[in-house]
Amino acid sequence: MRGARRPEVRLPPLEPWSEGELAPDGDYDGLEFRECDLAGQDGAGARFMDCALTGCAVDGTALGRARVLDSVLTGLRGVGTRLAEATLRDVELVDARLGGTQLHGAVLERVVIRGGKIDYLNLREARLKDVVFESCVLVEPDFAGARLERVEFTDCALKGADFGGASLTDVDLRGAAPLEITRGLDRLSGAVISTGQLLDLAPVLAAAMGIRVM
């Protein structure tokens, strides 16, 4: 089992962002977005490099195909943020309160998601490499068809997860409590779980295999 490599984000001195609204294919370098209302704005295809986003509202923000690099995102809140096919590399996402975030087809590499709660996270067909979910709550996350390599769940609640069609390599689920998997138990080859988790999953495993326990 190879552990995930964590990002080492060292932000330079930042300039406050004051442009008013995001722009499609915009280029944002060395900027601080603090308490900004980005709800409903269109930043599709934009690049964020060495940026800090703190306390921003991202309800329905369009960031499909965006690239977020060497950045720290703290206290983001919003529903329906659109990040399909985006790239997040060397990123820390801290204390987020998000719902229905669309990251299908996205690429996440050296990303830490620490604290907070994310409901209905859509990571279908995404690629996750060196990703850590730490001290957070994930409600009904969708990993269907995703590829996970060196992914760790540490002190993390994983409720109603879907791993249908996913590919797992060096995925450490031992720190997930509870560990609730509704689909894709047959795709857990390449993951490691604890003995206690195996016992907790036994009824679901038995049902999936057609075994009656009497």
Automatic annotation (TrEMBL):
Residues 1-22 are annotated as: Disordered. InterPro entries: 5peptide_repeat, Pentapeptide-BTB/POZ_domain. It holds the Pfam family Pentapeptide_4. This is Pentapeptide repeat-containing protein.
